[in-house]
Amino acid sequence: MIVLCGFPLSNYYNKVKMALLEKGVPFTEERVGTGSKDEAVRAASPLGKVPFIKTPQGALCESQVIVDWLEAAYPQPALVPSDPYAAAKVRELATFIDLHLELVARELYVQAFFGGTVSEATQERVRKQLDKNIAGFKRLARFAPYVAGDTFTLADCSAWVSLPLVALATKSVLGEDLLALHGVDWKAYGKLVGERPSAVRITEDRKADSSVPKT
């Protein structure tokens, strides 16, 4: 059986968890803190990052690699279209969300969510980059009603867990929800996806998790 390692407050952990739940793949969960120096963790995830999974064949790290493997190993129900180009467009959108929205906004999290501070220079740089990247995201995203079109896909596993963080972090630190400012109705989208059983399970588990694990 697959073991999902990480913790319920991690959006990338929940990205993988959503794919597992949507596909109905049996799995168990093992709580692992990010940055662990435990040798067993480093053997599975060399940088100590979460999530990672343990499979009968061995471990895998990096969320997009994991969900792509799940799609190949458990093709039904499909979370990408059968057409290769359409499938690549779904993965393109997921990668764009992860790298060009969430990863950029992540520099604000220390102040937005953890009581730290972010320098004005960093705030200015992040805002400038997100203004550019959100405009690019709007060229790719469809919200019809799902982020890649009329069907729930792997791109939604990225979007649903990360768009709220981008919005909340920018609102908290920069004073404006940059997604909303650029016309991205992430709240309506989040409500839609949030009604799916996988999202309900993830939300309940996240609420039950009271703190970020220590490493």
Task: Describe the structure in your own words.
The chain is α+β, with helices and mostly antiparallel strands. It has two domains: 2-73, Glutaredoxin, CATH 3.40.30.10; 84-196, Glutathione S-transferase Yfyf (Class Pi), Chain A, domain 2, CATH 1.20.1050.10. 57% of the residues lie in helices and 8% in strands. It contains ten helices and four strands, in the order E-H-E-H-E-E-H-H-H-H-H-H-H-H. The mean pLDDT is 96.
Structural features:
215 residues; alpha+beta; Glutathione S-transferase Yfyf (Class Pi), Chain A, domain 2; 2 domains; 10 helices; 8% strand
CA(first)-CA(last) distance: 26 Å
- Number of strand elements: 4
Q: Largest sheet at a glance?
A: 4 strands, mixed
**Tertiary shape:** globular
Question: Could you give the order of strands across the largest sheet?
Answer: 2-1-3-4
CATH topology of the largest domain: Glutathione S-transferase Yfyf (Class Pi), Chain A, domain 2
CATH top level assignment of the largest domain: Mainly Alpha
Helix content: 55-70%
What is the gyration radius calculated from CA atoms? 17 Å
Q: What integer is the average pLDDT?
A: 96
Class based on secondary structure composition and strand pairing: alpha+beta
* Pattern of helices and strands: EHEHEEHHHHHHHH
What number of domains? 2
Task: Using the 3D structure, state the CATH architecture of the largest domain.
Answer: Up-down Bundle
Residue stretches low in confidence (pLDDT < 50, at least 5 long) are none
Number of helices: 10
Proportion of residues in extended strands: 5-15%
